[in-house]
Design brief:
homodimer; about 250 residues; alpha+beta; 14 strands; about 30% strand
């Protein structure tokens, strides 16, 4: 299981991914799902993945070796693509190739899940950050102002807080808080999603990344979870009791 | 899509179900998913269903005609079963039969979803209410004090608020509020779940039901949704800004 979320607001891009990988609940380990490519100040491209770890690794390997796009002869690289849109195309093409590799390997064996979904976000040459969701078939969509976030993996638990609170005008630090609450709600309800959280922040005009790993012992994250839980209880208390009929009343 | 939740606390049982049925997003209608059997003061049995409407109707029909249990000859009825446990067994047996009926009809046609999950709750002869979750295979589990709720259908959106707030000691009216917030969060994030909500409340010692339909125009439900949304925004404001590194800082 996995939960990754990307928030694209006016003030910047926030990407978060948990790090729990499990093959059955008795085989749990920590694995980085948020990878960062590029060079600070020039290019930041981050890829978060949900789904088959083996397909993901095959895909990342293809990106490193270079991807020959349809109708082209020379390989192209995430590290040198001119735009984030071209990066998304390259990653999509790598997805198609990686899936074919893995399908050829596992063939008709049943019950082997090889699907992967990706978030690809970043900024090149100081341009405004962009965020894409790459489907398992290699096609993709771009995040826009109306719904300024994308989620992959175990997304439903943490969706209501995003839908209720996040807009394109939300300040960057507030967007970070909303993302962390969404993570916290997911981890509270699904053991397959767990700490540490990897978080990347990119601001417009810089193409520079701030990358943080939020560990089990992180005091801010714990305080955020405690305060949120307490505030929800208070919010509930402050809602008047329902006046719907009770039995025997 | 569907979302049904049953909350079993010390002071009683609350069952809620939305009423939206859809076969594709261009074919949406309202359909009662919370059915009530019995006679006020003597027996209240409520069945909420998520999944195939045709399997559900075949199952309900079997319950009305009576279910011959394995090794028995006479049909048994939800309306006369001696205990809620026996009710769950009868419903489970009806599930197996209904599924076979439908399977025989649709046979090998692909993409026909015939699965159903049920919540069965109620009280007989004034005894404490009990709540069961019946799987698509007819087997079932009973709700206990450690996790005093069951959900079926689109359950993930509304699970965090239950996990954070509900305990067996939660007062009945508060449990109703928590259930309604869980419904509200689900409807906010998933168009397949919609008003009206059917709500049933049963208190121990009575075997009497209070049944409410919460319509689109219901002022309390709207107020609850507004207050909850406002309180979440305030809760977020009251959490200090994160001190994690920002790019270029």
């Amino acid at each position: 299981m996995t939960y990754c979320v990307g928030l694209l607001v006016k003030e910047g891009l926030v990407m978060m991914a948990d790090t729990r990988t499990n093959a059955g609940i008795d085989n749990i380990s920590t694995y980085r799902k948020l990878r960062v490519f590029g060079e600070d100040g020039k290019r930041i491209v981050s890829i978060a993945s949900a789904g088959s770890l083996s397909t993901t690794q095959a895909l990342i390997n293809r990106l490193k070796e270079g991807v020959v796009m349809p109708g082209k002869e020379e390989p192209e690289y995430v590290e040198t693509a001119p735009t984030m849109f071209r990066v998304a195309q390259i990653v999509g093409e790598a997805m198609v190739g990686a899936k074919k590799d893995i399908e050829a390997l596992v063939q008709e064996q049943e019950g082997v899940e090889i699907g992967v979904t990706l978030l690809v976000g970043g900024s090149i040459d100081g341009r405004a950050p962009r965020l894409f969701l790459i489907y398992g078939e290699g096609n993709f969509i771009e995040c826009g102002m109306d719904t300024p976030y994308f989620q992959i993996g175990e997304l439903k638990y943490g969706k209501p807080v995003l839908d209720r609170m996040l807009t394109y005008r939300t300040p960057l630090t507030k967007a970070m808080k909303i993302g962390l609450v969404s993570m916290n709600s997911t981890m509270r309800s699904n053991l397959g999603v767990g700490l540490p959280i990897d978080m990347l922040v990119v601001k417009p005009g810089q193409s520079t990344a701030a990358l943080t790993r939020i560990e089990e012992s992180d005091p801010y994250y714990h305080d955020l979870g405690d305060r949120w839980a307490k505030a929800l209880m208070e919010a509930l208390e402050n809602i008047p009791d329902p006046t719907y009929p009770l039995p025997g009343a």
